[in-house]
Every structure is written in C-alpha cells, then in structure tokens.
Amino acid sequence: MSSRHLAVFLWYHPWRATSAMFGFLYRRLLYMIPTVFLISVVTFVIIQLPPGDYLDTLAAELSDSGGLDEGTMQALRDQYGLGQPMYVQYLKWMSQILFHGNFGISFEKNIPVNDIIWDKLGWTFAISLMTLLFIWMTALPIGIYSAVRKYSAGDYIATFFGFIGLAVPNFLLALVMMYVAFKYFGQSVGGLVSPQYLGEPWTFDKFLDLLAHIWMPIVVVGTSGAAALIRIMRANLLDELYRPYVVTARAKGMSEFQLLLKYPVRVALNPFVSTIGWILPTLVSGEIIVAVVMNLPTTGPLLLRALLVQDMYLAGSLILLVSILTVIGTLVSDLLLAWIDPRIRYQ
Amino acid sequence: MPQIRMHTEPDQTSHTVQPLVEIRGLKTHFFTDDGVVKAVEGVDLDIHANRTHCILGESGCGKSIMARSILRIVDAPGKIVEGSIIYRPGDGRSVDLAKMRPGSRDLREIRGQDIAMIFQEPMSSLGPITKVGKQIVETIHLHRRVSKAEAKEQAIELLDKVGIPRPSERFEAYPFELSGGMRQRAMIAMALSCRPRLLIADEPTTALDVTTQAQILDLIAELKEELEMGVLLITHDLGVVAEVAEDVSVTYMGKVVEKGDVFSIFEDPRHPYTQALMQSVPKLGMEKRHRLPAIKGMVPHPLARPSGCAFRTRCSQAMAGVCDKDEPGLLKSGKTDVACFLYQEETASV
Asked: ipTM value of the model?
C-alpha cells in the first residue's frame, strides 16, 4: 500500500471522527506538560522571594518556645534541600509533591499545608461549578432572546440589567444583598451555613441551610460573568441568525424555534464553553474581596492571608493548585469546544 | 398606474394543464429606514410541472426576492404587499401562498416537501457544524414518518443519486470536508429528499467553477425529467439559460420585461434590455479588437426608480414623452410578451 493509499485510507476510515478527537486530546495533553512545568517554576520562584529560608522563619518563630533541636533542623534541611543549589531545592520540592503529595508546612499555623487547603479547594471548586451553571442558565436564554428579539422592549431591559451587572462592583453587590437578606428576610449572613450548623455533621437540615445561603455568593460572583456572556451570546447569535444556512433550514420547513436551536445557537455556543476556562481563576483570584466580605470558605481569603504573613509554602501550594485547576479547566473547555464544533478538532 | 394584464388568455407556451405555480401581480417591498425598496414590483409568472423556467436579470433586480417570496422566506423588513402566489398541490386544491402566515404549519409543510429550494452559496448554505447526512435525514423526518434507519438509507440513496461518490462515507462528513461542487450536490440531495413538485434554484452554479457548473446543471435537468418536477432557475448567466431553460422571464428592477419560450427569446428578442443582454455576450468567431457592447450605465438605485419605464434611463431607443410617462404592460409581440412602448401601438391597433 503506497503512502497515498494509506493517507486516503486513514482519511476516509470510518473511525476518523473518533481518531481525530483522540489526536486532538493527545496533542492538548502534550501541550499541558510545558505549561504546568512553567507554572511550577514560577510558583517556586514566588516561594523563594521573601528573604531567608523556611527554616530561618521557623527557627525565629519557635525560638520563644525553646526552638527546635539540631536533629530536627537537619532533617528538615535535607527534606527541602536548603542551602543547596536552587535546582536541587526545586527538584526536592517537586518530588515531595509528586511522589508524596506533600505540599510542605504552613509556617503560620505550623501544620501541613495539606490539612488546610483541600477543604477550601473543594468549596472553591463547588462554588465555581455552581456559578458556572448559574451563568449558563441565565445567559443562554436571555442572550438568545435578546438576539432574536433585537431592539424589543425585552432586549432593552436585558441590556440595561446587563450593563448594571457589569458595572456594579461585586463586593458592593455582596454588601447590598447581605443587607437585604438580613434586614428583610432575617437570614444570617456571611458564611455558607448558619452559625448553629458550624462544625456539625452533615444532615438534611444543614444541607437545606446551605442551599439557603449558597445562592447569594453564586449570584454575586456570577452576575458580571452572566452579563458579559449575555452580550457575547447576543452579538454572536446576531452574526449567525441571517446566515444562508438558516434560510436553508427555514426553506426545509423547520419551525423557527427548532431551527434556531439546531443551527445558529449551536454555532454561537462556543463562548459558553470557553467560560469553563476562566471561571475558576476568576473565583480564586478575582473574587477575594467578595469571599472576604461574605466570609466564604474558599481559597481566596486563605491565599490573601498567606501572602500577607509570607506563609510561602501555603501561598505557593495554592497558586500551584489553582493554576493547575485552571489549566485543566481550559483543557476541558477546549475538548468540549472540539466536541461541539468539528471545525476545531480537524485543525 | 394602470397595469395591462395579458394573462386572461392562455400562456404562449400553451399548456393545457394548469401551471403548478401561478404568480399574479406580486409585489414584495422592503420597508427600510431610507424608504421603501420595491424589490418585486408587480410580477406575473407561471411555472409548469416538468418544465424549467429561467428568471434572467442583472444582480440587484429582485430575482432572488421573487423566488424567496414563493416560499415566504423573505427576511424582514421585506414583505409581500400585494398579489397572489397560487400553488396547486395536485389534488385539485389550490392555495395562495401569499396569504399564508410565514411561520404557519401549513406553509411549513409545503416548504421542503412540495417546494424545495437550493441556494447560490453552497459554502454557507449548509449548517457548518452538522453532518451532511444528518441535515438530509432531518429534512426527511420533518415531512415523512419513517424510522431512523430508513431515513438514513434514503439519505444515502439520495447522495448516490446526485452523484456523490462513496455516499455512505460522505453521509458522515461535515460540510467543510466537501468541495463546493459536492456541497451543492448535497444541497440538491437535501432539496430532493421529499420529492418536491417544484425546485427553486437560486443561482445554483454562480459560486462554482465552469466544469462543476455544467455538471450541476445537467444533474438538475436529469432530476427534473426523472421526478417530473417544475424548476424555477434564477440566473444572470445567458449561457445557463440557453442550456437548460424552456421558459424565460427577463426581469429588470423587479418587473418582468419580456417573457417567452427560450427559442423565441434567443432568436427574436424584442425588449431593448433583452436585446442588449444578448449583444453583450461574446460569440465565437467574433472579430478581434471588437469591443463587446455593454449596457450603458448601471441599474438605478432601488430608491431612485425612474418614472415610467424603469429601463428608459439606459435604453438606446427611449422615446421622450412616452417612456417616462407610463409603465408599459406586458403585451404579446411577435413570439414573446414584451413590456415596451416600442411595440405597444402595433399590438394595440390589432
């Protein structure tokens, strides 16, 4: 079989669509490696930025309570490669993370970083996911409506609230909503559960209480994103609505609603999928103020605090994990994009 | 303005059967912010089963809007303001498409099933991210109660029929994986999926290269014979008309200025516009260094329609005091129907 025949065979192979998808996945996974490596280097540099090393800080902190004995100091020095060249320190730090899942110790609280972050990361992830759903569920129908009924009263109302949503700072929205919830609905504000449930085991009542609280940060964090996405959806759909293929679908005898969802909306959907990539970093870094104001158990306030007190292993771990989550989010959004838009996966 | 109607007597091509689609006094106007654009301004047209009717005209003269008016797919702000489009489904009934609500179920049942349409841009007329096969199956499911497997089988059969090689593989292809000619074939397959009685082809070959163009035209002609459907072909290309047309309507600024069967139009064009079109085609054996005659000027802006006969501003035989006063109606002259005052006295005196 000549190479030409082989090429033709591969091109028309029935599994071509699937293999194209796998090829795309494979390539995207490969691209992730240098990205994650660079992120880890930058994180390491950040950890190294404050003067002195970890043990100096530790020794200074513990000197009041008698200090550490020389044996422990030496053991820690070996573990982190302190005093050795930078690349050795980097490799030791990375191998601790990769092979032992050990992110180091938080100076401030003197407990392993692992004990602090996973809970917060879980909440961050959960709130991100719910915010994403909130953004999609509001932006998709409103965006479609705005485009299809361009310049109607509904479109103007959506545009008006969209611009307000974009313009009002999130922390202000958070404060106003908390005030209203407290004053008029008598709800306890701040945190994700009422005070009496704090530290309690999970029950159905606690879950209901959580639901009563969690919508607020979701709305606050999601509003600007939803407003932006409504505008994007409207513009994209307006681009597609008058394309010849829409006329074709109409000429086939499809109903307006059916053809709207099957053709132009599907093509205009790409920016929706892309939101997966940016919602996580927004929540982690951009919404720190909201998280502080609303007392959310997310990584934002933790990161802020860690940076303030130069708790570098904690800060570094957070930056590293959140960056990697973002990279994964981008990967997921890219894969979804390739799934809904075949033109992307064949490029 | 008085319109002289000639359609009380049978059409020149004298079919004993009634036409499939009978358009009378159709006016489609666009209500833009700058004024009313009269894209179609009083058109009469008969389309017969098993015949190809070509609408010939320069770009911007309302040909496409005329065709889209039949299926009621004119985009806003366009609207049919007057006239009737009588369609005879073949069961003795006749419906006026112009009176139906654009999104109504009755009209949607006619679209794609009785009257199908193919478009100028095969590149953008198929949904970009939906498999070709799925788009055909979807059309079948809209109008026929068949199982998924049956629909797929029919779609593959259709792809085969329109000359797409390896149809079962192409069934799974996306439009961007096909060439322009293949896409247009797929469009035709989709249009034919419910065996329409009328196929409207809006410049189906304009975006294709000449070889492909000929193949597509042949395909349409073959399928017309086989399915005994009427074809309304819109084109600005005289070569296309000469090749496939049986009836021809020459349009200028939303009006039919001359109509007749293809031989009469080519042998003895009467309207100065038709004559000018014929002269602007290069012929084999033409003298070298001979400048090809072109129609002087441009199509006037649709908002600045000349008074009287719309063509008078570009007409070499325009008569002052006559052509700018009244609009000529279509009258029989020689073998064709012509809307021109040059011939009106002789006919009127008969």
From this structure: 0.83
